[in-house]
Amino acid sequence: MSEFNLTTPSHFSFKECRWFLDRNHDECLHSVTADMVIKPAVIGGRKVIFELSESVGGLKVKVLYSEGGNYPKEQLTAYILNWLDVEKDLTGFYDVLRKHAELAYMPRDFYGLRLIGIPDLLEAICWCIIGQQINLAFAYKLKRRMVEEYGESIKVNGSIHHFFPKPGVLGQLSIDDLKALQFSRQKADYVIHVAQLINSGELSLDLLQSLDDRDAQLKMLNDVRGIGPWTANYVLMKTLKDMNCVTIGDTGLNSALEQHGLVQNKKDKNEVLSFFENFEGWKSYLVIYLWRSLTKPDFQKV
Question: Which one is catalytic: 89, 250, 268, 298?
Fold first, then answer.
């Protein structure tokens, strides 16, 4: 077992990030205790299981398992920094929030919350497909069933840790395989199709990142069967860390906009996008903070 420390900036809160990762959902791809987060991930081509906890001035990283013995420290560090968006300077975002009376409380109440990503492209897209037109609790159940059935797992210190299924595995499934887990026929088709595209290299994180134009990235994603504007924006936000994504039509986002009195008609796409123009460079973060606000229906403005 190896461990090392990571320094974090002042605008980083492990408590807020830990809260985001532990919202009483049936999550199967990380685990959370009172003071730590345990995450399995494929890093540098090898399976790694690491534990994060708070330390003076930053985070303590403890490697619980590394495939092949020695763990890839530099790649693991880069993974964590990207996953938790550690290095982003939130000063500018907080300055903009404080200029809006309805949102000025957020830097105080949600101080240090980060845009926690989903680094794996297949996982991010599949999660969006799974969640289409069903409640969140059932979406987590479907994801767990698929991960436990078709993903790999490792037992460490008496606990089983799961890895998201590989594209080659999901791509070889039949629709009936996923229907047996209570996937709809359409969702099963979408998941298998996306996995096949990623496995063949027709769709990849590298391809998306090679497109400098954001519209081109959205088009590449929207051209995939099963991916619409909401999913495309979610993926760019969570996997590529695009700072200007707005998940138009999202039920939670609409509720938060309505609660804060930020738009007159939450169903008016143009009105919503017009409001977000005030947050150029921080739109994705505003989406995250508005989602966060839904747990504070009694929020107090300052």
Answer: 250
